[in-house]
TrEMBL record:
Keyword Coiled coil part of the UniProt annotation: yes
Glycoside hydrolase family 42 N-terminal domain: residues covered: 323-506
Organism taxonomic ancestry: Bacteria, Pseudomonadati, Pseudomonadota, Gammaproteobacteria, Alteromonadales
Protein name: Alpha-amylase family protein
SUPFAM superfamilies for the chain: (Trans)glycosidases
Coiled coil stretches, renumbered: 44-71
Keywords: Coiled coil, Glycosidase, Hydrolase
Ranges annotated as spanning the membrane: none
One Pfam entry name: Glyco_hydro_42
Amino acid sequence: MKHHLLGACIASSLMFNVGCSQSSEPQSAITAVKAEASTLSPLEQEARAKLVTLESMMDEARAKNIDVTREETLVWFSEQFIKFANWDEANPEAIEAAFGYERYYAPNKTELAATLPDFERTKVIDILDKGIDVLGQELRGEIKRRPVNKVDWQGTKAADNMFVSNGKPIFPYDYFSKTVGQPLTNTDIYNDHLGALYHGGENLYPVDHDRAINSFLVKEDGTFDQDLLKELTDIPDTNIGFLYYWIMGIPEWIEKQEPEVRKGRSLFTGFDIDNPLAREVWGKIIRKTGELTKGKKVTELGFVLANEPHWFAEKDFWTARFHEMTSISSYTLNKFRNWLNKKYAGDLAQLNANWNTHFASFDEVTIEIPIDPALKGQPIWYDWSRYNMDRSTDWFSFMQNELHSVNPDADTHIKIMPRMFMDNVRSGGIDTEALAELTTMVGHDAKSFGSKNIRPGKSSKWMEKYAYYWGYVAMFHDFMESVAPDKINFNSESHFLSSGQWRDLDTRTSYVRSVYWLATLLGMDANTGWFWARDPDGSPEDRLEGELDFFDPGLAGAYAGSNNMQPQVTNEVTQVMFDLNSFSEEIIDLREQPRPLRLFYSETTAINTDNYMTKGYDLYESLFFEGFPMGFVTKNIIEKQDNAQWDTVVVYNNPNVSDAEFAALQSYLDQGGTIILDAKSLKLNEYGQARKQTLKASKGKLIALDPNVDIAKIKQIALTEVADSMPDVMLKEDNSEAFKTTTWRTVKQPDGSYLVNILNVGHNTAKLDLSLTNGRPVAITNLMTSNSMDSQFELQSEGVLLLSVMPR
């Protein structure tokens, strides 16, 4: 350690002509260190000099009882990325190959590989400069930060709707798929900086080892593979974590016994979920692993029942190249026949009329899968799409029931892709609402775009108005929190930093801070980011070395341009999580508020129409910047939740609804609710047949809109109806645009003050004027710095504020 610090000191003396004490080291050692320092690049010398400065300031801060947890992380990442930069510089061929696997970077791979080391060093210098500046402000008494509330990686517990550490809410963070081959006890990988959740999902694409629970655990003779079980049972019972049921592969012995077992497979589900032998094997696996891990800390964050499940059964869809749903098994077809018999209550004539067919019995029903998208909006499309959702829900119900038969307290969630809700396509077999209701936690892998989409032909229209794609985060979280408000929300593969569709080698730290803050404010309780792929020596992890040939080509190109090359990004993730955990009680307080205005969501219309989510998002976006939490209702929410938790429901662009959905809306009116209804909604049933009934106001209030009403008018009417539930704190915004980009949330505190969170997701700095609806003057304190503020202030693009507002 002395050798390292002396080397840093010599680096400092080279940069700033300051003295180094040599009394504690022999002259030969000093000479050796000087020689070592002279071989460092100028940027590394500068970075190490700044490390010395910061560490000296940290010593001063500790002497004054100032918390330096944030700076400890900054130092750690700086040292790591200095090491990484040196590895990248010494191994240009490996880095060039990494850039070459991502088609966006491939044309410039040689130049990128050559410039990456100094880019990383420069970014280390940038974050050190910022760290020195902020700690300097605190040492001078210009700001006062709240000490970090660290995650207790051994003792954190899952409560009903949040994780709790040392008596306070906590938001655990980590990285998905951490450095396969490294032991879980390696503190270079599992620590407060990168996160320290133990989990069994590291080995994504090879399917037979590394703690992911998979089909190969059971051998043909019915016994368990003890070596694979050992991967699971050898996980230390120290840190909290979660486990994966990795359902991608299927053993050859099953395929020999069941030749149809791969019919109806999908990208990440390698077998037919309706196959009885596959179910038998998986039932055995789930029960065994559930017994072995009962009460273990590695399951505190639950079991992930599937990785990004979907069963797109649409002809010529992008998943076809992965052989997804290119045919279906006899088991799936027979289950569909039984489903139709029940759906039509045995009325075969009605089925034939709907489908324009002449089947002699339900047992003779056939359907072409993949189904032609030209059939969308027709009864056959609805019936198959609805069945495809129901059968996947049945599969996950089976999995959860098997687990709970041996471990009734086990938590479960599913890594649902947001596109299954946010996109217009509904041929994928995922009912987002049903699965959020089913599992004990809400699971997903929500993403955002911090810059333009890197794929040709993909839209980045949101960039015309906003700094990042906040809506993909916000609308999805608001829906999931509306469906399951009392469940933990776990993003087990956060794609906020990069994905197959976007990445930026110079990602803004302001974006990182804003998107993680927004997601947590709107419901995210824990996240594991995509992805950490550096071994401690700086090299890419084992899977990303050598020739890369993965079933899913996305992984090969994932390293290039990721946070693994960006010290400013990786450091900022931990810094924002530190700050969120420092204010965890305030974040929960802001989050757990009534959602006075609800938008009606119908899976029936979503299945039958082309642009349901696009239109729904337009209305959601228009209402998002008004200072109150948004929400949704569905048939199930109306029937299962307290309707008094909201004031008004807007039914917009919902032409097709089932009779049960229509009845739920009428029951809401019967209880005294308020509905704003557009002229096109509720006219048809799921088969496109005209509905004779119309909603009646009953004990409630029914506002029927004119046919030509636009979103601006709907917004005006909706805000009028919820005027009594609008926040006491108001924010006027001038961002030099004709639209708003600043969103805020506020909640009154027991002492009469108001807690206020503000985020600007626009491109421009916003001039803001904060006031109370009663006109009283206010005293404002920035809780992040403990400094007072005027009621008129500016907030830069992607800026985040957490304020205390006290009426005078």
